[in-house]
From TrEMBL:
GO terms for molecular function: 1-acylglycerol-3-phosphate O-acyltransferase activity. GO terms for biological process: phosphatidic acid biosynthetic process. CDD domains: LPLAT_AGPAT-like. This is 1-acyl-sn-glycerol-3-phosphate acyltransferase. It is an enzyme of class 2 (transferase). Its EC number is 2.3.1.51. GO terms for cellular component: plasma membrane. It comes from Actinacidiphila bryophytorum. It comes from the Bacteria. Keywords: Acyltransferase, Transferase. InterPro entries: Plipid/glycerol_acylTrfase. SMART domains: PlsC. Residues 41-159 form the Phospholipid/glycerol acyltransferase domain.
Length: 240
């Protein structure tokens, strides 16, 4: 399978985004050797800042394997942003709609064509008080089982220090200069799940396996042990 050509729109996005990222931030990138050279694959990435998609995309762009993100359909509505998203091959997700299945079909097609599809399995910024990954949605598991493509866990830290999630005042904190840390790990071993029926229980188990790998990488970046389990915002709201 051939890799996706970077193309005009991705190069334009890079021309716009890379200079300020290079000027404003230091970088600590690890694990690029785990990004497959040619075949289709999935990345599963933690999400702790509105800025971190740019941090991760910069890392991945420099490997030569550009990601296709699953992005909220609303982001495609503004003319210029929508044009860039469509031009770079990003995949719209229609949440709370039967059209959500189309996103997964598009993801499967892209992977089978030799491309990279990037998942933010949490679906939104983490609600964990200490910003560890939280219990995630199972779309990444469904696509992983359908394609049997390598699932590369990716953890990142640092964008949240420049732009904290859910801050009352949406202010950037550029100084002192922050370091955007990104690490990719080896493919998650999902062999035990291939061939099983994609029941809710199986999908949850696969998702948890993937997110545990992401969490372990984040612990490496943060230099501290990860919590035993993943934060569940639903249980937190219910006081359990």
């Amino acid at each position: 399978m051939s890799r996706r050509r970077i193309g005009f729109w991705y190069r334009l996005a890079a021309v716009i985004a890379k200079p300020p990222l290079i000027v404003l931030f230091k970088r600590d990138w690890r694990g690029m050797e785990h990004i497959p050279a040619d075949e289709g694959f999935i990345t599963a990435v933690n999400h702790n800042s509105y800025l971190d998609p740019l941090s991760y995309a910069h890392f991945q762009y420099n490997t030569g394997r550009v990601p296709r993100f699953l992005a909220k359909a609303a982001l495609f509505k503004p003319f210029f942003v929508g044009t860039v998203l469509r031009g770079t091959g990003q995949i719209p997700v229609f949440r709370e709609s039967t059209d959500a299945a189309n996103a997964f079909r598009a993801a499967v097609t892209a992977i089978e064509s030799g491309e990279c599809v990037a998942f933010y399995p949490e679906g939104t910024l983490t609600r964990d008080p200490d910003m560890w990954p939280m219990v995630s949605k199972t779309g990444v598991a469904r696509v992983a089982l359908l394609t049997k493509a390598p699932v590369i866990p990716v953890a990142q830290w640092g964008a949240n220090e420049a732009m904290p999630p859910y801050a009352k005042e949406k202010k950037f904190r550029f100084f002192p200069r922050k370091t955007l840390r990104v690490v990719a790990g080896p493919p998650v071993d999902l062999d035990a799940y291939y061939g099983l029926e994609p029941t809710a229980e199986t999908l949850r188990a696969v998702t948890e396996t993937i997110m545990r790998a992401v969490t372990e990488l984040l612990a490496e970046l943060r230099g501290e042990p990860a919590p035993e389990g993943l934060f569940d915002p639903r249980k937190a709201r219910e006081g359990k």
